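step: validate -> pass
step: tokenize input -> pass
step: predict -> running
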Amino acid sequence: MPMMIKNRSYDTICHEHLEYYSLKSLKYLLTKAGLKITNLSFNQINGGSIEVDVVKKSSKYKECKDLINWVLESEHVNQYNEIKKHKSFYNECLNHKKLLKKLLITLKKQNKKVVGYGASTKGNVLLQFCGINSKIISNIAEVNKYKFNRYTPGSKIKIVSEKSIKLKKPDYMLVLPWHFKDYIVKRERNFLKNGGKLIFPLPEIEIV
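step: predict -> pass
step: emit ->
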């Protein structure tokens, strides 16, 4: 949960991800269940996740108290377990929603061709939360052939092949799987070289 707040990755919140823990809340639950943490680490899965190794309290393996205390202190300093921090996160999400939609509508008014890139689960969360539909984005480019000629739920944007999108020479592509930024920038170097632009919506709106 702290990494989600830090990266403003509200698109992580969906039916596939049912819990969002800070270490404080996770440790509380594990303690109630008679378990202890022997090691923990962070990774970039789903915009940032915490991974813990857990054993029974009676296990010979020792709890990693120093590491736990260091992370708990970081959470305390950054107020990740405070209601006011969660309210601030919510307001940041609302502001981001306004800015992203305003940018896309402005580009549309300038007669720029704007399409989506990657019909992902997270992308659908972002599209619906921000109120981005087929009136703002004409199509979404996708590599999975089983998604071709289908539509994004709620926003009703048609999903087509990347090849057909590239033939239309879009000016901008809104990158929905934004957490693969480095890979996508490298993959789309020819698109960028030919004057195309990539819009990465999170954690900050960035045009490459």
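step: describe -> The helical segments are 2-6, 23-32, 65-77, 83-109, 121-130, 162-167, 181-187, 189-193.
step: cleanup -> pass
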